[in-house]
């Protein structure tokens, strides 16, 4: 088989504020002529980073196109000289919202003079040719629905007649019939000799539509499989899905944590039929029901981007619910302000540290972000704040040169300790409701362990905790109940005893509940 | 930026510059600005050293005049420092200042017979309220609209309605019937703010100084990193990271409503002083104190104590201009423009450092 694309030993590391992520760690990847190759993995596995290496140079590694080493230092050479094309995942960055469809695609046209009417004609022709439905080229992109935007993005890639086509999560916004017609189109292109990479975390898509599958986890290649062979080998489709799920989520052992058996208490927070839109106006949370109980940790597992963020933001009143209700301790908070939600004892550890910390202010300023409100007058209770912040620094062992040094000067682990110390001390015992979003993301081993132990301690003290995490091992080690979210819906809530890595992995990958139960049976 | 195999780049500062070092950085930028402005003098055939020497001499002779000019600059500078600290850029203090002048004159013309003890406070109160109202559109567009730069655009554009309103008022309804020139009649005697005998310093200087000190004590001063009031803390947090502030339950709208209305009100108070203490009538042009106030606030490090010093400096600059006879007035404006530019430029170095690395 002729290899059109080879990527050898690709490395890429991202440096955040106090966080180092090895997104690609010596990744090898090959693409044959005329194949559909699925790149499978959880979020953060390094799939998008890998294909981005074709448009922006990676830290190290070699890229060969048609067996010749190439230097792809900007997207335009990749698109024009090597006939690569990509439909990106993040449409808000890839499409210019204020421009029309035609204007978005115009940037790829050839020639000195630009004719918008010609482009519009071309687009109409192309839409028909590729069977991508009816989209008005004169429409402004921000007026389009999510599915239409996705189709524009795909069209943008197709219109250059590429030899190598890369689709990053192309089906996220599409309906099932649209997905089917997209893959029909891919088969047609394939028969004409186009080589296609499809990035996905949907197991069924990978199995049903691809020729080969490469599974990535934590920035490394786990395995590259021939889809046909695997199916033959495994017998039936369910078996294959199950195998892929296990490759995708890994087989790490559970963390060794001291976890007392406690019976869950009464219901503290109730989410009823919540429907939430994202920033683009698409409905991404489709009627979710969840219950948080005292003395208990509810885990929300799922590949990120399936509506977790919007659900939490809705719960926290950062975002409005389209419909549904949120009830905290019997009080309907659906239309209350963030401040009123906070007053009910809701502590929040956001995934985005920018939302949790003011980097330019001191450790003390950051620790008093909740407690400064406590005094009844306009004034801040000076002595109380001093003693409280000193106590927190000691109790949580925050390593800072002084309480007055800016948080920016702290290490990543100590920064997160500041957040944890502040939020965990919001209320005592049963009065605490805690929402934690990937609280250990990017932390060193010691702090990770510390945060998890603190979560369990708060659980023992009576707090009701919602843990959103894309780390399955973390969820399995800590939670009493696990809800799995997929495409804005809860696939099911499993108790600790029912939950296994496999069946959660299946539900995360969208295998529907009945078939996954069959698999388990 | 790449120069001969060396890359020069900007990096965000981890440890902010504070205390004496901050004062030093500001003063060195000021000197740099004076140096560049000196070149302009040189091109106009004036020895800059002689010019600066003359400016100092004039100021020493006219200390009371400098202090009189210092009053509006201090009021506006203090007023601006508060929203600037919340990272809401009120660059339209000029408009609020003009509205203050108009309201003061209007109140005086409306009730010329009220005793001074009532009329003058009434002028201050009315002006403060209208100046604050003039700032409210900025709050609405900034907090409720989706556009981050709305504060800059809206506050700046609101200068012009105020300016044209003044032009219309002095050229028609309030025009001085005696002379027929395009300025208003003199303010009634009861509306004139008393002065310290023998000087042009009007007594609202005490009001403005008191407000400056109160703002310092209640909003800006921190003891062991803790401000005196909740509002002071909220201003700190929202100014540095509004996202984190909102997650903690702070109301961005509430805080910028307070800071902006205060800012508008202070600019208006400066206007009252100017019209009722200094000029005693309205003209078609304003002094541009509102724009100078921006530089006053930044040169003062957004700290009331620093602003007192920087307001004095800019007042001295204005008075010093009297010494520069024989050059076009546009050169004088260019001069203060350059100084303001360099003062604002220093803000960049408070946030970034310049580093270089060799490219392999």
Describe the fold and architecture.
The complex is a heterodimer of chains A (521) and B (360). By secondary structure, chain A is α/β, with parallel strands linked by helices. Helix content of chain A is 35%, strand content 26%. Chain A has 4 domains: 1-83 and 162-253, P-loop containing nucleotide triphosphate hydrolases (Rossmann fold, 3-Layer(aba) Sandwich); 91-160, no CATH class; 256-345 and 428-521, Rossmann fold (3-Layer(aba) Sandwich); 357-425, no CATH class. Chain A has helices at residues 47-52, 75-80, 91-94, 101-106, 116-130, 146-158, 176-191, 203-209, 227-234, 237-249, 308-315, 338-343, 353-356, 363-367, 382-395, 412-424, 445-461, 472-478, 501-508, 513-520; strands at 3-15, 20-32, 36-40, 60-65, 68-69, 84-87, 164-168, 195-200, 212-217, 220-226, 267-277, 283-293, 296-301, 321-328, 331-332, 346-349, 433-437, 464-469, 481-486, 489-495. A 6-stranded mixed β-sheet of chain A has the order 6-7-8-3-9-10. A 6-stranded mixed β-sheet of chain A has the order 16-17-18-13-19-20. In chain A, strand 11 (267-277) and strand 12 form a beta hairpin. Chain A is globular and about 70 Å long. Chain B has a single domain (62-326), classed as ABC transporter involved in vitamin B12 uptake, BtuC (Orthogonal Bundle). Chain B has 14 helices and 5 strands. In chain B, strand 1 and strand 2 (6-12) form a beta hairpin. Chain B is globular and about 75 Å long. The mean pLDDT of chain B is 89. The interface between A and B is medium-sized, with 38 and 26 residues.
């Amino acid at each position: 088989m002729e290899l059109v694309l080879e990527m050898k030993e690709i490395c890429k590391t991202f440096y955040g504020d106090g966080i180092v992520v090895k997104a690609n760690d010596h990744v090898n990847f090959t693409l044959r002529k005329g194949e559909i190759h699925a790149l499978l993995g959880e979020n953060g596995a390094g799939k998008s980073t890998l294909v981005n290496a074709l448009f922006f140079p990676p830290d190290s590694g070699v890229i060969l196109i048609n067996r010749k080493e190439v230097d792809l230092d900007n997207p335009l050479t990749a698109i024009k000289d090597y006939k690569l094309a990509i439909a990106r995942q993040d449409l808000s960055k890839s499409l210019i919202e204020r421009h029309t469809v035609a204007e978005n695609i115009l940037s790829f046209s050839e020639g000195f003079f630009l004719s918008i009417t010609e482009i519009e004609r071309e687009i109409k022709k192309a839409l028909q040719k590729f069977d991508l439905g009816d989209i008005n080229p004169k429409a402004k992109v921000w007026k389009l629905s999510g599915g239409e935007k996705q189709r524009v993005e795909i069209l943008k890639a197709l219109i250059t007649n590429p030899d190598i086509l890369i689709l990053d999560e192309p089906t996220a916004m599409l309906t099932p019939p649209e997905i089917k017609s997209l893959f029909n189109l891919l088969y047609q292109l394939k028969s004409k000799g186009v080589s296609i990479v499809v990035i996905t975390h949907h197991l069924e898509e990978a199995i049903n539509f691809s020729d080969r599958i490469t599974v990535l986890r934590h920035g490394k290649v786990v395995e590259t499989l021939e889809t046909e062979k695997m199916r033959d080998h495994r017998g039936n489709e369910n078996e294959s899905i199950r195998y892929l799920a296990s490759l995708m989520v890994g087989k790490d052992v559970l963390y060794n944590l001291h976890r007392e058996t406690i019976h869950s208490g009464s219901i503290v927070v109730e989410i009823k039929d919540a429907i939430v839109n994202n920033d683009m106006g698409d409905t991404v949370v489709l009627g979710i029901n969840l219950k948080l109980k005292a003395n208990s940790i509810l885990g929300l597992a799922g590949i990120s981007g399936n509506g977790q963020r919007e659900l939490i933001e809705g719960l926290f009143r950062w975002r409005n619910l389209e419909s549904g209700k949120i009830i905290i301790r019997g009080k309907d908070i659906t239309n209350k302000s963030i401040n009123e939600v906070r007053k009910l004892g809701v502590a929040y550890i956001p995934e985005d540290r920018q939302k949790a910390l003011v980097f330019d202010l001191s450790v003390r300023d950051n620790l008093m972000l909740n407690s400064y409100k406590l005094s009844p007058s306009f004034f801040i209770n000076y002595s109380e704040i001093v003693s409280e912040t000193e106590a927190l620094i000691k109790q949580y062992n925050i390593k800072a040169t002084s309480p007055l040094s800016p948080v920016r000067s702290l290490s990543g682990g100590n920064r997160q300790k500041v957040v944890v110390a502040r939020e965990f001390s919001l209320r005592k015992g049963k009065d605490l409701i805690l929402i934690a979003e990937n609280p250990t993301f990017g932390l060193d081993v010691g702090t990770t362990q510390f945060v998890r132990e603190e979560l369990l301690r708060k659980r023992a003290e009576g707090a009701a905790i919602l843990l959103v995490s894309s780390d399955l091992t973390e969820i399995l080690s800590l939670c009493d109940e696990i809800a799995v979210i997929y495409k804005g819906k809860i696939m099911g809530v499993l108790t600790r005893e029912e939950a296994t890595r496999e069946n959660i992995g299946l539900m995360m990958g969208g295998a529907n509940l009945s078939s996954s139960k069959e698999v388990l049976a | 930026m790449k120069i001969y195999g060396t890359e020069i780049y900007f990096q965000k500062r981890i440890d902010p510059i504070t205390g004496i070092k901050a004062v030093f950085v500001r003063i060195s930028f000021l000197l740099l600005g004076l140096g560049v402005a000196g070149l302009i003098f040189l091109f106009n055939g004036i020895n800059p050293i002689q010019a600066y020497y003359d400016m100092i001499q004039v100021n020493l002779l006219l200390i009371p005049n400098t202090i009189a000019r210092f009053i509006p600059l201090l009021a506006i500078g203090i007023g601006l420092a508060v929203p600037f600290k919340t990272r809401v850029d009120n660059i339209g203090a000029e408009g609020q200042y003009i509205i203050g002048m108009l309201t003061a004159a209007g109140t005086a013309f409306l009730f010329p017979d009220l005793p001074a003890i009532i009329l003058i406070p009434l002028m201050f109160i009315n002006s403060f309220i209208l100046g604050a109202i003039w700032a409210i559109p900025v709050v609405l567009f900034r907090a409720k609209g989706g556009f981050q730069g709305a504060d800059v655009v809206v506050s700046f554009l609101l200068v012009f309605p105020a300016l044209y309103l003044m032009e219309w008022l002095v050229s028609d309804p309030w025009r001085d019937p005696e002379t027929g020139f395009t300025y208003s009649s003199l303010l009634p005697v009861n509306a004139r703010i008393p002065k310290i005998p023998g000087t042009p310093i009007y007594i609202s200087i005490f009001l403005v100084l008191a407000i400056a000190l109160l703002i310092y004590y209640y909003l800006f001063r921190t003891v062991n990193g803790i401000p005196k009031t909740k509002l002071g803390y909220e201003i700190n947090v929202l100014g540095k990271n509004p996202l984190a502030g909102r997650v903690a339950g702070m109301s961005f709208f509430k805080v910028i409503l307070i800071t902006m209305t205060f800012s508008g009100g202070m600019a208006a108070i400066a206007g009252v002083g100017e019209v009722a203490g200094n000029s005693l009538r309205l003209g078609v042009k304003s002094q541009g104190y509102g724009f100078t106030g921006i530089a006053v606030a930044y040169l003062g490090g957004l700290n009331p104590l620093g602003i007192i010093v920087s307001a004095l400096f800019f007042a001295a600059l204005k008075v010093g201009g009297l010494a520069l006879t024989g050059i076009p007035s546009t050169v004088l404006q260019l001069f203060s423009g350059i100084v303001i530019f360099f003062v604002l430029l220093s803000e960049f170095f408070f946030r970034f450092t310049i580093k270089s690395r060799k490219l392999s």
